[in-house]
Automatic annotation (TrEMBL):
Alphabetically ordered keywords of this record: Hydrolase
Entry's Gene Ontology molecular function annotations: hydrolase activity
Lineage: Eukaryota, Metazoa, Chordata, Craniata, Vertebrata
Entry keyword annotation includes Hydrolase: yes
Native organism: Setophaga kirtlandii
Keyword Hydrolase recorded: yes
Domain of life: Eukaryota
Name of protein: HYES hydrolase
InterPro entries: HAD-like_sf, HAD_sf
Length: 65
């Protein structure tokens, strides 16, 4: 089967408009599992470590994707 995953380059938003990005993230979380945010996993795209971390969380190997 397929397991969708969303890997995003996001940051901690402390602006007065942070509710809009929070609302978008909530919508994405309803459609994708897991949603991996760079600010939470500690590595950003295109660093290969971001993709390696996503594979670990999904429990898969590179040749399976």
């Amino acid at each position: 089967g397929f397991q969708p995953c969303l890997l995003t380059n996001t940051w901690v938003d402390d602006s007065s408009w942070r509710w809009t990005s929070a609302a978008l993230q909530e919508q994405l979380r309803r459609r994708f599992h897991p949603v991996l945010e760079s600010c939470r996993i500690g590595v950003t795209k295109p660093d290969p470590g971001a993709f390696q971390r996503a594979l670990e969380i999904l429990g898969t190997r590179p040749e399976e994707v």
